[in-house]
Structures are given as C-alpha cells and as structure tokens.
Amino acid sequence: MKQDNQIVEYHLTASAFNWEIKPGKIISAWGFNNQVPGPVLKAKKGDTLVVHVQNNLPEPTMVHWHGIRLPATMDGTGEVQQPILPGESFEYRFIVPDAGTFWYHSHQNETVQMERGMYGGIVIEDDTDPVLDEEKVLVLDDMQLNASNEFTQHGVVGRWIERHDGREGSTNLINGKEYVQLYMHAGQKERWRIINAASARYFKLSLEGRPFKIIATDGGLLEEARTATELLITPGERFDIVAGPFEEGEVFAIQSLPYNRVTMLKAKKQQYARVQVMDKKPSIAVLPSKLAVINRLAPQDAPVTRKVKLSVDPSLKHVIDFRVNKKMHGMDAPVMVDDLQVWEVANTSLMDHPFHLHGFFFQVLEENGQAPAYSAWKDTYNLTPRSVLKIAWMPDNRPGMWMYHCHIIEHHAAGMMANFEVVDPLKPSSGKKETISRCHP
Ligand code: C2O
Ligand code: CU
After folding, report:
1. Whether residue 101 sits in one domain with residue 69
2. 331: CA distance to ligand 2 center in Å?
3. Is residue 248 located within the same domain as residue 374?
4. Which residue among 53, 132, 144, 287 is least crowded, i.e. fewest CB within 10 A of its CB?
5. Ligand 1 mean position, distance from CA 208 (Å)
C-alpha cells in the first residue's frame, strides 16, 4: 500500500562556529546547525520538503537544492530570490519528485561559504529502492588551510593558482572529518551515497582496488549495476555505490587516485577515510538485475537546438577569463516549456570543467561523437579539455529563471555561467533582461 505523501520539515541555521575536523584540529567553519556538513535531509519521493533557513552569518546567504526538480522560485539563486540577510530567514517549500541522492549548498559568495562548510546531503527514498544492509551518506570535501588552520588566501601566486585550478587543499574531509574512521560488518553490502561538495577537487574513488558496484547517479538509479574499481566523481556530482561484502578484519582506505585535469598543481593520490570491517553479520541485501527504466529522450543524431561554448580566454584585466559563449555571467536565450532541448556543450579550453544544469536532468547523447556506455540522468557532467558533449533535456512546466555553470566554484565565480529563462508560451515572460548574479573580483 502506498503511503500518503507527507510534509517533512527541517530547520537549518547558518552560522559561524568552531568545528573539530580531527582531535585538536579546529577550524572556524561556516555551516548549518553547527555541523559540517549540515544535517542530511531525508524524505520520500513525492513528499513536500519545508526548510526554514535562518541566517545568523555576518553576510547574506541563499540555499540551492542541487538536483531537485523544484519550481524556479525555490532554486535559491540571486535570479529568483532576495538574499537572506543576516538575522533574517526564508522558508523553502517544494515537492521532491525524484528518488536519489541530492545536496544543498550556499549559492551566495560560494567560494567562501561553500569552502567553509555550507553544504549538506539530501536523501530521497522510494519503495522501489533496492534493499541493502546499511546505508552511508559520504560528503566529500577538501579544505585549503594555512599552518594555523585558517582559510586565508595564500599570496599573489597562490591566488592566481586558485583562480586557474579552483581552490584545492590537502585537508581531505568525509562528512566534515579528516581521515575519518568508518565501520561495516563482514558479509554485508552497504549503499554508499557519495556527494562531491568540494570547490574543485576531482575525486577518483578507489577502495584500494576492491571492486564495487555503481547503482545510481545524479538523477537516481541506473538501469543496472555496473562493477568498477575506480570512479571519477567531479564537483557537484553524486554516485551511489554498493560496497561489500568484505572479510572480517579487512582494513582499507577510501582514496582518491590522481586525475590529471590539467591544473598548475600536480594531482596526487589522497587518503580520505579508513574502513574497518568488523564481525560477520547476515545479509538481507537484494540487488535486482534491473534497477530502473530510463527512457531515452532523443536519439543520438537528434538535431542540435543550441550551442553552449565554455572557454578560457586571454584577458587584459585578469590574464584569463572564464566564459560561456564569450560572455562572463551572461544571459542565454530562453527555452519554451515542453520544447525538447538538444544542446551541444563544447569545452574549447585546455582544462576540465564539470557542467551543471540547475533544475533539470539531462541525458548524454554523445561525448566526442561517441554514445555513452550507459544511460543515466545527470545534472552535472565533466567535460575534458577540447571535448564536445551532446545532451538532451526537457523543460517541463516550471517556468522562470534558471542557470547552468561550471561547478568548479572559482570558475563559476569568475564568469563561467549563464542564466536563461524557461518560458510558458501561454503566460507572458518576466521580460527580465541581462542580469549579473553576483559581484566578482
Ligand atoms: Cu550545485 Cu549552481 O550549483
Ligand atoms: Cu571550470
């Protein structure tokens, strides 16, 4: 019997507080409810999530619900709401129409607010989810701290590298803790919902070579589980994996293997957590061979309706500029409700960029002329240097202002983003013209 949809309410208070990332190592974090990450918000598919956000920070903020197909007015960007001023609050209210792993994060002064810890996981469950023995939500992040564990920026050269590469640091966190200790039982299979909340870190997951199964990504379950030993998770992306079964006494690290995204600083292998396998317990896990059905939105050769070009160009003022269709913080043409979108997103630069579309899931039709290895609903997808992605997505009836951007937060801040309006042809458009969503350096 299907349970009736519920109203699920949460209170999130944004503030500054001290946070211990490992014994004796204390940072002055910014976050929700005095914890990094903020609490995991849980609901069932179809529920209404009501989140009261109280801002006790010394500056304005806004919260974006990354991956949730909500109305434009609830998207938490400067295009659709006034920032929540210090001392004020805002009530976000929306239905959660899809099961999966999502996340929330500040969408104001992100290079500071997100870096300091303003993010958290969202888990939307459904009765059709596979049954696993346990579940872990693993929110990945890295911080760049100085010797006194402060977030200060590191000189002219450091700032230049940070603008180019995005801010990466060697303090690696899972759920706000440095080199955290995790436990699981031998003989069991767990669902790990992995969220990359880092500003710029490309996380290439490895369980020291142990195979795992990938079962879901940004928009929910894949059609079938895929076995892997490595998995690239770029900023903003989510993947759910099944880990185990392991043997009693096994100990291994959750690590990130080097991924060369053409940065100035060289990628290194990084340790994120240590997993200790405890005594054996019986397993009730059932992973069906067919997890979901993903209907194709369009054939691979569908005609392109729009071209989006991500570029990094020489600039007099900043040495390099991060742009979309030659503009920084630009405005793209509107799209009509129910008008299938087939976009060719090209990365002409010599570095990687994770492309994120707000509010809608897309399917990759083609990457550099090749159909993808499997179907998936995505809202964030990495573009390697000089690559071309062909994606399809459907603007359903949620008119308003939306955006897409590079999810390397420093690139986004530097201009690699654009707004666009979804227009209901039966209703007049807001007529909003070119707007700049933030002040940038
Ligand atoms: Cu996580 Cu504008 O995005
Ligand atoms: Cu980028």
Report:
1. yes
2. 18
3. no
4. 287
5. 30
Both 1 and 134 in one domain: the answer is: no
Distance 94 CA to ligand 1 centre (A): 17
Q: Is residue 299 included in any domain, yes or no?
A: no
Residue nearest to atom 1 of ligand 1 (CA): 66
Same domain, 334 and 394: yes
Domain span including residue 411: 306-423
The full 3-state SS of the chain, as one line of letters, equals: CCCCCCEEEEEEEEEEEEEEEECCEEEEEEEECCECCEEEEEEECCCEEEEEEEECCCCCECEEEECCCCCHHHCCCCCCCCCECCCCEEEEEEECCCCEEEEEEECCCHHHHCCCCCEEEEEEECCCCCECCEEEEEEEEEECCCCCCCCCCCHHHHHHHHHHHCCCCCEEEECCEECEEEEEEECCCEEEEEEECCCCCCEEEECCCCCEEEEEECCEEEEEEEEECCEEECCCCEEEEEECCCCCCCEEEEEECCCCCCCCCCCCCEEEEEEEEEEECCCCCECCCCCCCCCCCCCCCCCCCEEEEEEEEEECCCEEEEEECCECCEECCCEECCCCEEEEEEECCCCCEEEEECCCCEEEEEECCECCCCCCCECEEEECCCEEEEEEECCCCCCEEEEEEECCHHHHHHCCEEEEEEECCCCCCCCCCCCCCCCCC
Instruction: Enter the pTM of the model.
Output: 0.95
Going from the Cα of 190 to the center of ligand 2, the distance in angstroms, rounded, reads 33
Residue closest via CA to ligand 1's atom 3 equals 66
Q: Are residues 312 and 404 in the same domain?
A: yes
List pLDDT tens digits, range 307-362. 999 999 988 887 889 999 999 999 999 999 999 999 999 999 999 999 999 999 99
Task: Give the nearest ligand 1 atom to 236 CA.
Answer: 1
CATH number at residue 393: 2.60.40.420
Count how many domains the chain has. Answer: 3
For residue 429, is it within any domain? no
Q: Which atom of ligand 1 is nearest to the CA of 358?
A: 2
Residues 279 and 200 in one domain: yes
**Complete DSSP assignment for 80-137:** TS--B-TT-EEEEEEE--S-EEEEEEE-SSHHHHTTTT-EEEEEEE-TTSPB-SEEEE
pLDDT tens digits for 93-116? 999 999 999 999 999 999 999 999
| 437: confidence class by pLDDT, cuts 50, 70, 90 | very low
